[in-house]
């Protein structure tokens, strides 16, 4: 019997395909998380602007006193 050394081309190819699928899923998840973070940041900024706009009349009335 002949001893087998190393991996066959098909085995290496299957491993490469599985790794590329996992890498693709990871990149897609990263892009989705990046978009969610950007959206959350924009929402927080808009809320801060709304709050500042509500406080402007109060700040002006205390400056006159």
Can you characterise this structure?
The protein has 65 residues and is mostly helical. The chain has 1 helix and no strands. It has one helix at 9-64. The longest helix has 56 residues, at 9-64. The protein is rod-shaped and about 100 Å long. The N and C termini lie far apart (100 Å). 0% of the residues are buried. The mean pLDDT is 91.
Helix content: over 70%
Instruction: Name the average pLDDT.
Output: 91
Overall radius of gyration: 29 Å
**Total DSSP helices:** 1
Based on helices, strands and strand pairing, what is the structural class? mainly alpha
Tell me the distance between the termini. Answer: 100 Å
Strand content: under 5%
Query: Would you identify the regions where 5 or more consecutive residues have pLDDT less than 50?
Result: none
Shape: rod-shaped
The arrangement of helices and strands along the chain is H
Can you count the beta strands? 0
How would a crystallographer describe the biggest sheet? none
């Amino acid at each position: 019997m002949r001893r087998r050394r190393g991996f066959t081309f098909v085995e290496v190819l299957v491993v490469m395909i599985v790794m590329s699928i996992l890498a693709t899923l990871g990149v897609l998840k990263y892009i989705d998380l990046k978009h969610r973070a950007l959206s959350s940041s924009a929402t927080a900024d808009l809320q801060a602007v709304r709050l500042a706009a509500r406080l402007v009349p109060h700040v002006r009335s205390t400056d006159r006193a």
